[in-house]
Design brief:
Strand order of the largest sheet: 1-2-3-4-5
Order of helices and strands: EEHEEEH
Largest sheet: 5 strands, mixed
Radius of gyration: 12 Å
């Protein structure tokens, strides 16, 4: 069971996770557990998602589940973070 308090919105393969900041662990500190939990709930693979998350300070960054690494986006709006993530991924192709 994940120890963070979070909510999420899934639009297609775009996953937006929000740290509800209710005193539990931060999303940042247990994102490795959150993604599989959401994947199981949604009956999908964790690697199917493009993931951005809002940390407890309100900043949006990305997560690459395949490489288990954070992607610095430093955005204040979720959709801006997702757009930036998509552009970064296209640049890497």
């Amino acid at each position: 069971m994940v120890r963070a308090n979070y909510s999420y919105k899934l639009i297609g393969n775009q996953l937006f996770i929000i740290d509800n900041n209710l005193g539990g662990m931060s999303v940042t500190n247990c994102i490795e557990d959150i993604i599989p939990e959401i994947a199981k709930r949604e009956q999908r693979k964790a690697t199917d998602f493009l993931v951005v998350y809002q940390d407890s300070m309100g900043i949006w960054d990305g997560w690459d589940h395949e490489s288990q690494s954070f992607i610095t986006l430093n955005e204040s709006v979720g959709i801006d973070a997702m757009n930036k993530l998509i552009l970064k991924l296209k640049e890497e192709e």
